[in-house]
Amino acid sequence: MNILRVDCGAGRLIFGDLEMPCTIGRGGACPAADKQEGDGCTPLGLWPIRGVLLRPGKVVASGVRLPWRWVRAQDGWSDDIADPAYNRPVRLPRAFSAESLIRSDDAYDVIIVLGHNDAPPVSGQGSAIFLHLSEGRPTAGCVAVDRADMLRLLPLLSPGDAMDIVR
Fold it and tell me: How far apart (Å, rounded) are the C-alpha atoms in residues 23 and 135?
């Protein structure tokens, strides 16, 4: 297992010899036990990498060793604490609130899904914690890096790798 280390205080992501700037949630970093839906905090802890979602026409999948698939127009991620599928991928439209994985910006052209609050999900303790492309501002709780850095990093990741988010 290889570890991507996110140093929230320094705003850096480190993986082997690679080091790059990263952004975290608008609410800063918080202990995972204190994470709440919508608080904008990036949860501290060691999170397994579950897989990758790629936006067709925006990135090339060659060299990706993690499990991956193309994002489709109806793909979403449940962020509704009343939804039985909370913090799970869902199909849109949906009766419950869910974030679309097709965005008008480029932030979700590459989504690395982190295993935060997913085994099993506990309603209200945070959903959709990803490593994605930087929007030039703090995230809603995810970790984000520039496109060029993500495209250097992505082919280096393997099944079993994890992200360690520290203060």
Answer: 9
Predicted structure pTM score: 0.97
Instruction: Please tell me the distance from the alpha carbon of residue 57 to that of residue 42, in angstroms, as a whole number.
Output: 29
Following DSSP, what letter does each residue of 30-95 receive, concatenated?
Answer: EEGGG--TTS-PEEEEEEEEEEEEE-TTT---TT--S-EEE--TTEEEE--TT-TTTTSEEESS-S
Given this model, what pLDDT does residue 31 score? 98
132 is catalytic: yes
- Active-site choice (22, 30, 41, 142): 142
Q: Strand 18-21 relative to strand 12-15: parallel, antiparallel, unpaired?
A: antiparallel
Q: Which tokens sit at 101?
A: 């994985």
142 catalytic? Reply is: yes
Instruction: Give the mean pLDDT of 78-88.
Output: 98
Type and span of the H or E element at 13: strand 12-15
CATH of 3-74+101-166, one of 2.40.440.10, 3.30.70.870, 1.10.357.10, 3.30.565.10: 2.40.440.10
Task: Band the pLDDT of 17: cuts 50, 70, 90.
Answer: very high
Instruction: Give the tokens for residue 74.
Output: 């109806």
Do 97 and 81 form a contact (C-beta atoms < 8 A)? no
